[in-house]
UniProtKB/TrEMBL annotation:
It comes from the Bacteria. This is EAL domain-containing protein. Residues 24-274 form the EAL domain.
Amino acid sequence: SAKAAGSNQWAFFKQQMTEKAAVMLRTEASLHDAILNNEFLLHFQPKLDIRTGELLGCEALIRWQRDGRLISPMTFIPVAEETGIIIPIGRWVLEQSCKVLNRWQKQYQTSTIIACNVSSKQFNSASLVPDIKRLAMRYQIDPGLLEIEITETSLMNDIEPAIDKLHQLKSAGFGIAVDDFGTGYSSLSYLRHLPITTLKIDRAFISDLPEDSAIASTILMLGQQLGLNIVAEGIENEAQESWLKAHGCIIGQGFYYSKPLPVEEFEQRYLVPAAQRVSSE
Ligand code: C2E
Ligand code: MG
Ligand code: MG
Ligand code: MG
């Protein structure tokens, strides 16, 4: 009967939900162990001055080393976000980045910026701003060298408290980038009120270049009008680069320059003084 069929469907649905919950719990448990067992690491992808090739900064991107394999953040960050375990993971990313900044200052006398991705839940937690300030103090970081990347979508979720938090970070001197810009639904007039320093044009609009440039040029003009830094993310070829150069975009990131690299490789390629690099090759 229809009723029996309905109840079968319900049983099936319930079983599926239970399985999903079980997978989530298992992943949460192993993510928790991952913190304790030091299974996370950061890769660094350079951000370069498109005009000169000079290194300006980099983005820290998390990886999970599990049974000899590197697991992409795209598979575990969403689970971490849903279960809340993103908070300690995100804190680990910030602390690790501050440690690296501290070491780079001493070892290379560099002013390379590190940008850290902050997820929605992490951004909304009350401890974010005090955590960041405390870390910057402990590791003696010039706040201008630490940049927070937050996606347009997570900012727009709950805009009023977000603005307040951005003010606190910006007035302390930290950089704030809106990540994946152009994919959300923010009203452009809102952007004026956001205390941010940088817009990152989403990769989707860079991959359209040079044929389809309407969105990229609109974002560039808007950002220039508002006096923001603009980063083009996901540059993969010379044609994209030339278009961006011709349209006044200064900061570039993408496989065309480099994939995200393990820290030692990043240092060897980008932080060793030029003279030394030439003679060692
Ligand atoms: P995202 O913040 O937008 O980071 C850029 C992603 O694009 C990175 O992927 C990077 O490897 C990739 N990418 C860079 N250049 C190119 C290119 O030229 N072509 C293509 N096809 N891809 C490019 P990744 O490392 O897999 O990270 C994916 C996403 O995971 C990030 O997107 C970010 O949303 C999230 N994520 C990564 N690390 C963290 C973290 O520490 N915390 C949080 N909350 N999220 C993170
Ligand atoms: Mg990012
Ligand atoms: Mg992005
Ligand atoms: Mg993204």
